[in-house]
Amino acid sequence: MSGSRAAGTVEGAQQVTDPVDGAPMQTTRTRTLPAPPEPRPAAPPAPPRPGFRWWMPGLALLVLAVALLARSAPSTGDTQWIVVGGAGWWTLTTLLHLPMAVILALLAGGLVERVGYFWCGRRPPVPGRLPALAPAVCVQLPMFNEHAVAARVIDAACALRWPAGRLTVQVLDDSTDPATRALVERACADAYARTGVPCTVLHRTDRRGYKAGALEAGRHRTDAELIAIFDADFVPPPDYLLRAVPHFYRPDGTPDHSLALVQAQWGHLNHDESALTRAQALWVDDHHTLQMSWRSARWRFVNFTGTAGVWRASAIRSVGGWRAASLVEDCELSFRHLFAGYRTTFVNHIVVPAELPATYAAYRSQQRRWTQGWVQLQRLHLPTLALRHRTRWPRRVHLLYHMCISWQWPAWAIWTALLPILILNDLWYGALGTAAGLGLYLLPATLWALTTGVLATLETRHTYPGRATPAALARRLTRVVPYVAVNAGMLPHQFSAFCEGLFGPLHTEFERTPKAGDGPKPRGGGGAARRPYVLAEVAFAAYQLACAAIFAARGLPLCALGATLLAGCVLTLTHLGGRARP
């Protein structure tokens, strides 16, 4: 299933005692890892029909939209084929607004989380008391060709404050670049010499399972009670473990075995670098500070974000270990813990800063993987969540919203393709007047974006160093503009990722997000594999520009402006996605 069956090698970065078998490990010693047992995978959904390609539904939507647009474009002078305001008009118009109803329902669900945060989630969870003998902690650092940031995260992991003899570091290095492998081994040796923290390197000879496979292989090489995980671009503060681990204990110092995960807030190392990083910083602040805080406090469940979290090792073992069943192996593991009855918690005042993707190519690659992976997760676990998981119905409804939030992308894609046709046929509520059109079609999304921007800006008290002056808050609030533009420009890209996740194969290549200073682009970052995405983006923009031209000819300047801006956002991101810097 994952890379858990793949054997590899362990190269010690210093002479220490192996935490599992007690054998001394020399700097140059190499040992072959035994293949750990692989958990039995769940039965995968039926494969797509032969000859069917994941991009075909998008192509069908485009062809249908173009055909309907061509049918609606000619102006005969009598467009009132149905009486505006009549019973038939209300019925047909309401039915055709079904995609917008889905969008409004998803926006309402998001608003419940963000506003609900002030009643449930704003107060951080109270940690327990550590026992007299601190638990053994293993810090895992999965990485792949992370030449620019590997040494930094190794240094930060070895600098974590924890009782002597109770901390080990595993560097799960799947790098194929010899120079990066040598850098990682040297960084581990230097960190051990400086801190005395045992730091071992796992080089696998087979990358099956990608990150999940590396984490599973490392898990079988430690007997630590708790496992902390950090991606290579994260820099955990020295007191991270001292603040996170007590949450696994009750006030009397006894372990809370029902708690499987403590997830920390993502911070930012480069949030002010560009419009792209500012937009991402707003998204992260909103998702973590508001959404995850509310979910944790209200429903006792958050999904692991792949990094900046501490897992109870026995909990991972009890649900079958890491699996590469989808591209979001962290979320897939989280939902298996949910079904097994475990709790997971989020602590927003523990902040771990990290690099935001600094290029549009890196950002698009990251978003594609996340959207595709979440849809794969639905294929694996949605029936269990909807039908078999035993919980109260309000919690089930929210968990379904949580798992299915990626359906916003097909809803928006269908709606932006359909709305111009409705406008040209007077089957939209703007036919009742300008105020009705602006209020219904622009106001909900505008209010949602402003609410998100304001709340995320005011509530990120722990994320940004220094005092939150009015000038700093005002500047941070302007992130709403690039945030909206980037999300609009990503629409056809995200729709393509959704379709690939729903109709494509479950087991696809894991594309890492390039970090600052990276040299070669990762495999799959362009070429034929991404051609359907670029074609979809160009076709979507061309469709919107055609709609804009028709609107202008019909004397609908506001509609023409909206379609033009949407096409411009898409083409701009498509162009910048092929460049090295934003």
Provide a quick synopsis of the model.
The protein has about 575 residues and is an alpha/beta fold. Helices cover about 50% and strands about 10% of the residues. Helix 3 packs parallel to helix 15 and helix 19 runs antiparallel to helix 20 (about 555-575).
Provide a descriptive summary of the structure in words.
This is Glycosyltransferase 2-like domain-containing protein. Residues 1-48 are annotated as: Disordered. It comes from Phytohabitans suffuscus. The protein is an alpha/beta fold and 582 residues long. It folds into two domains: 55-62 and 85-120 and 407-516 and 525-578, no CATH class; 137-374, Spore Coat Polysaccharide Biosynthesis Protein SpsA, Chain A, CATH 3.90.550.10. It is built from 20 helices and eleven strands. The protein has helices spanning 56-72, 87-96, 98-116, 150-158, 178-195, 210-219, 240-244, 275-299, 313-318, 329-339, 360-388, 393-403, 408-424, 434-441, 443-459, 470-477, 480-489, 491-503, 531-553, 557-576; strands at 8-12, 16-17, 24-25, 30-32, 137-143, 167-173, 199-204, 226-229, 259-266, 309-312, 343-352. The strands form two sheets. A nine-stranded mixed β-sheet has the order 4-1-7-6-5-8-10-9-11, with helices on both faces. A two-stranded antiparallel sheet has the order 2-3. Strand 6, helix 5 and strand 7 (199-204) form a beta-alpha-beta unit. The radius of gyration is 25 Å and the shape is globular. Mean pLDDT is 88; it is low at 1-43 and 517-526.
